Amino acid sequence: MGIVYSDLGLASIGLTEDEGVWSGTDSFPGGTGNHEIITLKFLYDNDHMDVDGSGRFNGDDVDELESYLESTDPELLERFDFNSSGDIDQEDVDVLAALVDAGLHAGVFGDALGNNGTVDCPSPMWAGPTFGYTLGQAGYKITLDFDLDGDTDSVDEAAYEALCD
């Protein structure tokens, strides 16, 4: 499952895209030239942004990336050195956190109620989540899409039931 980045309004803030890389320049008032702002490498898929290897991109990946501050590991740099500084720094962690905050994450599987980061299993007071929706429909919840294929079908429902047993 991918994301249509033209829908994020990046062009409206002056960024341009070249083969999936968004970048732009900004002038310093009274300065002698332009400086490059953060280059966002939107070659996004869930696996690309999954720092901790859990199979889902979410806030846990921000925490994991923070544990790699000052790293020069080539694989990490390729995926997460958003400001091209040559190491993983706090600015890179902040960009990843902003992507999570912007809703570009898969959440915690089973967090069916309020995106609070915990698994919500049905109780007698709650009938439970509804499955059978696809990406784009109002009832679709990525936190119930176990295999992240854009629908909440019987595979996802079975995984949720197994999680709550």
Unreliable residue runs: 1-10, 19-23, 26-43
**What shape does the CA trace take?**
elongated
Kindly state the percentage of residues in helix.
25-40%
Structural class: alpha+beta
List the helices and strands in order. EEEEEHHHHH
The domain tally reads 2
Largest sheet: 3 strands, antiparallel
Provide mean pLDDT, rounded.
75
Strand order of the largest sheet: 1-2-5
Secondary structure topology:
Blueprint: E1 16-18, E2 21-23, E3 25-27, E4 34-36, E5 40-41, H1 46-49, H2 59-66, H3 74-80, H4 90-101, H5 154-164
Antiparallel strand pairs: 1-2, 2-5, 3-4
Helix pairs in contact: 2-4
Structure overview:
This protein is an alpha+beta fold. It has two domains: 5-101, no CATH class; 108-165. Helices cover 25% and strands 8% of the residues. It has helices at 46-49, 59-66, 74-80, 90-101, 154-164; strands at 16-18, 21-23, 25-27, 34-36, 40-41. The strands form two sheets. A three-stranded antiparallel β-sheet has the order 1-2-5, with no helix packed on it. It has a two-stranded antiparallel ribbon with strand order 3-4. The relative contact order is 0.11.
Structural features:
165 residues, two-stranded antiparallel sheet, three-stranded antiparallel sheet, elongated, 5 strands
Quick overview:
This protein is α+β, with helices and mostly antiparallel strands.
